[in-house]
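=== RUN LOG ===
request id: a7f3
mode: sequence -> structure
chains: 1
length: 263
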Amino acid sequence: MLGSTVLEVAVGLTFCYATVALIVSTLQEIIATMLRLRAGCLLEGIKSMLGDPQFTSLARAVYGHVLVNPHEANARSRPSYIEPANFAVALIDAIRTMPADFAQLGRDIDALPNTRVKRALQGLYLRAQGDMALFERSVALWFDTAMVRVSAAYKRRAMAISLVLSLLLAILFNIDSIHLFRSLWQHPALAAHISGAPGTLDAQAIEALRRLPIGWQNFPPALNEGFVLNVAGWLLTASTALFGAPFWFELTKKTVQLRGARP
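=== RESULT ===
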């Protein structure tokens, strides 16, 4: 009996968290697309990399290059991704004053106003030893390395948005993990109708979620000691969304399989 209860509780909790995480990830992607967060993070990363925080010199010249941005250089058309090789060509074209002259390119690099960028490019230039193709590959690799930090910054921003969205969702629908756990523990049959781990919000998933002990019975809630537990339950629910929908759906699938294999 104890094993049966534990499995039913696990199925109910993981299915609920998977559905919440799926809704949150969908909303987060919509927000990221509408606000062009990826393009914004990429732009900020390149401005920092090239020492152009005001976007008035080297970074702006790179963004104006047709290989980086084939459209007009405005906020709506800025790219969300730049091919490293294209960035290298665009940066070199923005720096050099005389095409096909490697020696002049070295002097153009020496004339750059930003000391940090100049030293980085000087090191790459010296290692290229007159080989323009090698220099372009080195610049592309430098860009790739910088983009690792940009990706990490975007993930932190996306995680913060997901946390806010999941908390709002938990409060809006009163998805209180503590209350949910208690209800499933006392009435494990509430999760008996969950028979799979769908990856989309179809009618079956919505109906399964509706039968779980979530939602408001009395609103607004009374501001007493029970409200503190409500807040803790909402925060716990919100934190689970950070693991992502694939994690929870896979866990739901495994718990359902364990329940089905139980004698």
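=== NOTES ===
The mean pLDDT is 86.
DSSP finds eleven helices and no strands in the chain.
=== END ===
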